[in-house]
Amino acid sequence: METSFDMFIETEVPENELIISRTDLSGIITYINETFAHISGYEPEELIGKPHNVIRHPDMPKSAFDDLWKTIKAGETWRGYVKNLRKDKGYYWVYAEISGVLKDGKLVEYKSIREPMSREKRIEMQNVYDKLRSEEEHSSRVVLYVDNDQLEAIKAFEK
Ligand SMILES: Cc1cc2nc3c(=O)[nH]c(=O)nc-3n(C[C@H](O)[C@H](O)[C@H](O)COP(=O)(O)O)c2cc1C
Question: Which atom of ligand 1 is closest in space to residue 111's alpha carbon?
Fold first, then answer.
């Protein structure tokens, strides 16, 4: 039997440098700093105007982002660990703080600042997110693939 595997390279986030981005209220990138560009492997002009999920890594559970949006829409700061996808399909881990920016008391945009994480924390969070994702995918699989006829069949089977 032939076995194949993909290898993805982790990029280390430098100490003493912040990775910064800003978005409009719908999550479209309006600004990234040079460190962000460097770490993600994109040029700023490739990211500005794009939804922030272009760097979403498939290992991230949906619930992390649900929590993020709920928190920032409520006017609070979200703090959490994020695995991001580089342009070359490699990845990098960051501890992120994301919050709203107010102008004259009115919410006008969102900003985020990210820092490096320790190796231990990255391993821990990979396990946490793997577990969350498998739970989420399990339940969504049921929701997605059961049509009415199948649902009737399941109900009949359960009786
Ligand atoms: C200011 C700000 C920064 C964000 N930074 C990231 C990020 O670094 N990585 C990421 O995957 N999502 C980030 N998001 C969340 C994305 O907008 C998006 O919700 C997420 O990638 C999941 O994609 P989805 O909502 O299409 O499922 C950020 C959102 C905001 C408002």
Answer: 1
